Amino acid sequence: MTIDEKHQRLRDIIAGCGMLAVAFSGGVDSSFLLKTAYDVLGDRVLALTADSVFIPRAEIQSAEDFCRRYGIRQKLISIDVLSVFGVKENPPDRCYLCKRGIFERMIEVAAKEGISVIAEGSNLDDMSDYRPGMRAICELSVRSPLKEAGLNKAEIRELSRRMGLDTWDKPSMACLASRVPYGETLSKEKLQRVEQAEQLLHGLGIIQCRVRCHGTLARIEVPPEDFNRILDGSARQTIVDSFRQFGFSYVSLDIKGFRSGSMNETLHNKNSHA
After folding, report:
1. Is the same domain home to 22 and 127?
2. Which of 45, 148, 160, 201 could form a disulfide with 165 if both were Cys (CB 3.0 to 4.6 A apart)?
3. Domain CATH number, residue 142
């Protein structure tokens, strides 16, 4: 099936929903799904954006800007994810517990709007990743139209580019909880520390990055081609000084480089990406 045939299949799937609420984070996948849904359904689509300490403020603002730009109706849903049973303890299935709590709330909000179908932005590539949150999606009968249409990440980026969406080349993003090792208790302070650290790196022009939080040690992951930007004398000092202000005692550079889901490597080693 060609990319255009998959896109049409997606439109047909969405049209069959009649009315649709889209779990919208502002990332590549959910932005493409939401805009396609709006093109098909118009005002019968509603964007639902979870607002929690797991999501950087810049991402919330980006999601709001996207909906405002295209005139898409949006509801922000404030969720205290750290109060969801089991989430604060950060077990390996934290994503399942969190996703279940978030989608249960979204289902409630959508129902009040007369919408019975909820969709989220998982794509075909996510099938091979460690994503315990997918279990919650299945249990709650949340639709995954991009996956149903057979679209992968590269195809979604290409179709987004054709549609003129400025999210087409946006770096991948995962919730801030994915920066903390499983078993290490999550707190608002830790998550804010990570958010500040990553914002600093973005300000230095390093867009694709993760700051993993191991207690008071920060482990920076960037693509190998950006290593010199981190190790440059002035930048390095700025990073060290700022990270200490944020609450980190030690700062390290992971020489393996950036990779999604590096916290899952311990799961693979024990016997599996964010």
Report:
1. yes
2. 160
3. 3.40.50.620
Number of CB atoms found within 10 A of residue 81's CB: 22
Report pTM.
0.90
Q: Is residue 95 part of a domain?
A: yes
**Nearest of 111, 18, 19, 35 to residue 71 by alpha carbon:** 35
Does 137 lie in the same domain as 38? yes
Per-residue pLDDT, averaged over 12-39, amounts to 97
End-to-end alpha carbon distance in the chain: 29
Q: Please state the domain count of the chain.
A: 2
- What is the per-residue pLDDT across 115-174, written as a single tens digit (0 to 9) for each? 999 999 999 988 766 677 889 999 999 999 999 999 999 999 999 999 999 999 999 888
Contact criterion met (CB below 8 Å) for 102 and 63: no
Residues 6+ apart with CB under 8 A from 186: 82, 87, 88, 89, 90, 94, 177, 180
240 occurs within a structural domain: yes
State how far the Cα of 15 lies from the Cα of 8, in Å rounded to an integer.
10
pLDDT tens by residue, 172-199: 888 999 999 999 999 999 999 999 999 9
